[in-house]
Design a protein that fits this description.
The chain is mostly helical. It has one domain (2-235). Helix content is 75%, strand content 2%. The chain is built from nine helices and two strands; from the N terminus they run ααααααααββα. It has helices at residues 2-34, 42-67, 72-78, 81-85, 91-123, 130-157, 163-178, 189-194, 212-235; strands at residues 199-200, 205-206. It has a two-stranded antiparallel ribbon with strand order 1-2. The longest helix is centred in the N-terminal third of the chain and has 33 residues, at 2-34. The two termini are 22 Å apart.
Amino acid sequence: MLWYKAWLETRSRFMVSLVGMVVLCSLIVFHLDGNALSWIKAEYYYGVLGAGHRTLVMMWVLAVTLLMMGGLLREKAIGSSALTLALPVSRTRLTTVRIGMGLIQTVSLAVVPWIAMFLIGWVFGKTHSISQAVYYLVILVTGGLPFFSMSVLASSLIEGEYTAPVVSFGAVLVTTVALSSPSLRPYSPLNFMMGFEHLNEHTNLLSWPIPWLQATIYILVAALLLIVSVKVIERREF
């Protein structure tokens, strides 16, 4: 029941985001591939997928921020939190189910558009490296988890359906700008998601191995922010 409730609350935003991301990213890859000559090397086509990926990253951050607005504080603002809190479950359970549904949806927003882009590239007979697609997905999802957690935390601290997303966008912007200097750029989650630090400019391929240590750090940061979010809701007065 709780999972179905979480789905009902987010399905419209999720479906609109998913369709928009698939269509736009697919059109970018299709358009660039369609203008390529048949003799152009495969490296060009991986560059095309890289361009599609970077577009997907920006849309993904935007979609995740909008997707996670809401929750108990939004229900409090519109006067419906009493009904939810009357359910025979704890606040922790309510919050973790919402987070779980959000994680499923955010991963889907990365995987489905990437499958569409890869299939378009594959039709042209140039992109056969599934490992590169997996690499891109790993850095997208793990690097993006802190932004997901920021959105959850903002919606746990700030009332209002639209105030929390604005604060989340501000946090993303501040984080990106603060880590934009050459010395700090390698630690930027957004830069990590883009893959610039691991991209071979001659082949347009990401260099192995996958940076698991940095990915793990982002996962731990995201987990910490989510734990704080749950604790905030537990102690909040409604």
